[in-house]
Design a protein that fits this description.
There is one protein chain. The two termini are 41 Å apart. The chain has 332 residues and is an alpha/beta fold. Helix 2 runs antiparallel to helix 3. It has a 5-stranded parallel sheet, with helices on both faces. The chain is elongated and about 65 Å long. The chain folds into 3 domains: 65 residues; 125 residues, 3-Layer(aba) Sandwich (Rossmann fold); 114 residues, Orthogonal Bundle (Arc Repressor Mutant, subunit A).
């Protein structure tokens, strides 16, 4: 079985229009071949992992290309700093909008709109890291924008800060009950706004760091939106149900979540900093660690129980994840 020749067949297409799903299916079929040597099986497993990663990179690039389209609504600094976190600014007042865009663009990629309806469209298309919105705007008030975003699983993870000249207690409560992560009364000090944005984003980074911790159940993770907790819980339960299935695919995963691949990628990336393929792999390896600690199974048995068809590849992945080989876990 000439694996190199097989790969060249798919990757040498002049227009590169062969769907990656076709390549994955073809490579997966090779895994069942009795003609494949042990070394070939290891190479094939690595090739599949790389193709899955390429799928995720293409999804990320597609989202990035969409966000960086030439548009009068984009900040001039957006394309200059692709590594910056993205911020969607919705402000009807032109003076305030220009002031905020100019100052926020120093630290963030800024998408800027002047009404709530456009803000909702861009939030769905671009999955920004945070949204700053005026509470009262034409098209769709910031209150309603926030409520819609926070009640939809595809966007419920996006933090929202509402800005408003309405300083009475009732309006502040109304904004927070709409799901806003913060409510800032105008006029405000820009440095305070900047600090609150940074605190919200840092808090999300901390959540991403602990989401895979075995000592922190998802229900106890401090996500402010119940939809986010339910999404992660459902995602983990789906993977655990299919844990021993080596053929469990990203397409099946997304279908069971009843979401598109792009939505699943955006959601997982925002909540866990992992794409779907890495998310599934980490859940498998965490479960493998549980099996190994129990001392009831050999390394090879655990490998098959968590969906790896090659114990050697499993051991390599396990050591890369935990910094120790699975055989060492058994002796601890």
């Amino acid at each position: 079985m000439n694996l190199v020749k097989h790969l060249r067949h798919w990757l040498s297409k002049p227009d590169l229009r062969t769907p990656l799903s076709v390549i994955v299916t073809s490579l997966s079929e090779l895994q069942t071949s009795e003609e494949l040597s042990e070394a070939g099986r290891n190479h094939l497993a690595s090739a599949l992992a790389n193709v899955y990663r390429l799928e995720e990179l293409l999804l990320f690039k597609t989202a990035g290309d969409e966000a960086n389209k030439p548009s009068s609504m984009l900040s001039a600094s957006t394309n200059a700093h692709p590594a910056k976190e993205s911020l969607l600014l919705a402000e009807a007042d032109s003076v305030m909008r220009e002031y905020l865009m100019e100052n926020l663009s120093k630290d963030y990629q800024v998408l800027c709109v002047d009404d709530g309806t456009k803000a909702l469209e861009l939030a769905r298309e671009n999955n920004p890291d945070i949204i700053i919105s005026n509470a009262l705007m034409p098209g769709l008030p910031g209150y309603d924008l926030c409520r819609i975003l926070k009640s939809t699983v595809e966007t419920s993870h996006i933090p929202v800060i509402l800005l408003s000249a309405l300083s009475d207690k009732e309006n502040i409560i109304f904004g927070l009950e709409a799901g806003a992560n913060d409510y800032i009364v105008k006029p405000f000090d820009f440095d305070i706004l900047k600090a609150r944005i940074r605190n919200i984003l840092l808090s999300r980074e901390q959540l991403r760091a602990i989401v895979f911790s075995p000592n922190t159940p998802l229900v106890e993770t401090n996500y402010t939106n119940e939809l986010d907790i339910r999404f992660l819980d459902k995602a983990v339960r789906i993977i655990e149900k299919e844990i021993s299935n080596p053929d469990f695919s990203i397409n099946e995963f997304c279908s069971m979540l009843a979401m598109s691949r792009t939505s699943v990628y955006n959601k997982l990336k925002s909540l866990t900093n992992q794409g779907p393929n890495d998310f599934i792999r980490i859940i498998r390896l965490n479960k493998a660690k549980e099996f190994l600690v129990s001392g009831e199974y050999t390394v090879a048995e655990v490998s098959y129980r968590v969906g790896f068809t090659d114990p050697k590849y499993f051991s390599t992945s396990f050591k890369k994840q935990f910094g120790v080989s699975p055989s060492k876990i058994q002796t601890l």
